[in-house]
Amino acid sequence: MGKRNSQRKNAAMLDSDDDNSSVSSSSTTRSDRLSVLGTEEVQLDKDSLLEQALDALFEKRGSTREKALAAIIEAFNSSMQHQFLEKKFATLLHQCLSSIKRGSSTEISLASRAIGLLALTVGPGDNAHEILEESVTPLSQALKSGPQSSKKLLLECLAVITFVGGSDTEETEKSMQVMWQVVHPKLGPNVAASKPSADVITAVVSAWSFLLTTMDGFKLNPKHWQESISYFSSLLDKDDRSVRIAAGEALAIIFEKGSLDKFFREARDSTDGSIQGSKPREGFSHIQGLKGKITNQVRSLSAEAGGKGSAKKDLNSQRNFFRDMLEFLEDGYCPETSMKIGGESLQTSSWSQLIQLNFLKHFIGGGFIKHMQENEFLQDFFGFKPKKKNPLEDEHRVSSVEKRMFKSPNSVVNKARTQLLNKQRMLSEGRNVGHYAVNGGDEEV
Description:
The protein is mostly helical. 65% of the residues lie in helices and 2% in strands. It has helices at 10-13, 30-36, 46-56, 62-78, 82-102, 105-122, 126-145, 151-165, 169-183, 198-213, 222-235, 241-256, 259-268, 280-302, 312-331, 351-364, 368-374, 376-382, 400-407, 412-439; strands at residues 337-341, 344-348.
């Protein structure tokens, strides 16, 4: 088959859905945030805005905390907040964790996204590891007992903070197990498990897969994940299209990393020499049979005709995805993608890179381009070199709202500018008088 399909609609392979629904900060304008936080005077200093938003997280009213979190998210999406975090890192983290423990579904989702952006901003190191250590337990508890509608962002948050702050395989697998238990809970006697929704299943599989991309397949513990392959295969038969695609992504990474064969080898070499009670030869046949079954499922999904009421865009996305996956399973070719960021190309050439890019692009949302242009951690991770800025270009671009603030005749900034111009005019007139006096022979100005 060659690579004839590898270049097909590469842009379509990149998740274009940057909408984070109720937790999107794009609908919260700067002027809204100022009024929400009780600011009477225009304040252009970004640290000052963040300080006010952080103060608002201590308020008792949940709606006030929600709007403050939305303001914080927008601030992290619009620029790197390193100076602010040098002073307020710990306070912000613990207030966000407090929101996860006591807040509404919306507040939990907003706080989860803020913590993820906090980790991406500080980058790997002690602070990111502290975020992970402090957050794992509150996130795990919220995933068990919190509202269903907040679980998607909780899972994504856990994936991101583990991606940035995890220092070894054990920490990453611990987070993956927390995710796994959302769809495979460990229950005590007489406890009925609530069936997870399609959205939650998709979020679990996507977050789990994202962390799998960061791991060496040969360091995975096969005892934890043998059942995952059969589970993902079963998801390929589900009615929900997003579930099928998420399961396909997980299987693509497993095959890419060679984890399928690894699970068999380690299980075969174990003390009882069996895989889930099977003899070694039977275990090998089981793995090969499962591989053939998955290939047939992928082939069928790549040519699905679509059901009644099926959205054409979603159907095309599924077909394109599974055609690329089928080509990978049969010929070993991975899809190659490219996207332009500030005149430079960010490219992927493996399933792992593609899934990493889509996951982070979706999580960061509207701030993704800004992060790729200024976030050194993400640049290093993706091997991306942004186009150098023009040294004459203003480092802090003024937003349209800020421009209106400057232009307003009643603004503090405009009044200050008027006073400065008047003062400069008076000084200039004084110099002119002095100049004429000197020409007239007067030595004193």
